[in-house]
Amino acid sequence: MKKVITVLVLMLVLAPPPTLTLAQDDDRVTIRFWHRWGNVTWLPEVVEPSFEAAFPQYDLELRVMDNYNHAYEVYILAQEQGDPPELLQGTSSNTQAPRDTGFFKPLYEAIGDRTEINGIPVRLDEIVGPAAIFYQLDGEYYELPWNASTPIVFANMDLLVEAGVAEDVNDFAAIPSTWAEVHEACALIVDRFDDVDCINFGASGWYFENAMAMQGAFMANNENGRDGCVTEALFNSQEAVDYLAWHKSLEDAGFWVDYGRSEYNITWANSKLAMHMTSSAAARGRVEIGEGNGFTVGADRMPFNQDVDYVGNTVGGGMILLTDGLDPEVEEGALTFLMFLLEPENMANWHKSTGYIPVTQSGFDYLEAEGWFDENPTFAVANHQLAESARVPQTAGAIFGSFAQVYQMYREVFQNILRNDADIQESLDRLKAEADLLIEEYNLLVPCEE
After folding, report:
1. CATH value of 2-149+315-391 in 3.40.50.720, 3.40.190.10, 3.60.15.10, 3.30.420.40
2. Are 206 and 316 in contact (CB under 8 A)?
3. Which of the residues 121, 203, 342, 441 could staple to 414 if both were Cys, CB 3.0 to 4.6 A apart?
4. Contact indicator for 342, 260 with CB cutoff of 8 Å
5. Is pTM, for the whole model, over 0.85?
6. pLDDT in tens, 331-378
7. What is the number of alpha carbons within 13 Å of residue 278 lying toward its C-beta?
């Protein structure tokens, strides 16, 4: 079975990987962690030296990968060469496939019934809300939740005040929180300005997934795969149609715009965009751009359908996977580092460096005791949104092996709806049919175990 999955992944590789040989230059136990956070200097400048100072028996090697897909592809090749890293950062949109490879050891098996590792408390019971249920299966953690986020709306508060949407730049509650309120606010903004776009967000499968969860709808059968194997996608439900109809109505009214990341940054910096829905992990970057260009950045929840009861949002981001088959002393070192990352101060500093939520309650409490959220209310929005989310299978997210491929298909379908006025229901029916074929093919390759 490992060979089957390996072949599938190798088909995705477009370029030769970098050299995989990593040397150990002393008698310490080397712990290699491959991740995609080259822009977070806190990891090499603070985490690596502080971990090695606390545990001098370990040599932590951080290696930055281009993106999640590249990291996974190179990891598979490293497995083929018999030299995989001990820890790998994976993405929330690809959880089932790594589990099916057999390359990774479930975290709960590695930890067992221990309450501490190398003197560091095991804090898995502190992991909060949807982050907890997303990465659990049958109540057990298969990987470590780490960079967790949720979609929220960032706003140029100066523009909202000038348009009459907000009373002052601290009036974050004025940021629209329902689909109808987005229309109302955008009408005021485009009426006031000739050269300001109202709202921007991508045609992303993640927003679609959240829109479904917020309305209490499932992405896949058997309660998103949480109560049995997924055999059918549920992308063509009325809740899905309603979300895409709302998004299309924004474009038809001239309220929504779509442009690339570089153009977005320029538009945001020049106060030509009033609101932007994206990951809460963008908080650090959004606020810094505002500070550098003389405007106040506010934030509020992802807008929901006001015609149905709000159920909750799901998380995105990533987790850390533990390679199976490690020597005992190496596995112990890898687990020590994972628990080190969950220490309250480290959770707090990870959040401050990025905007990702602190996934443990002790990390959140550490920030609250500092007064961080009082001084930085934009960073608090994601925590509040997830705290209000019900812990139900809808907000846990769907798990099936071909989920990442379906994410990519969704964007193409959505662009066809937006650009070519394709019928929403017919487009979603086709997406469901294509997704069901992928699910069937994957289940044939990797039979699902109930």
Report:
1. 3.40.190.10
2. yes
3. 203
4. no
5. yes
6. 999 999 999 999 999 999 999 988 899 999 999 999 999 999 999 999
7. 20
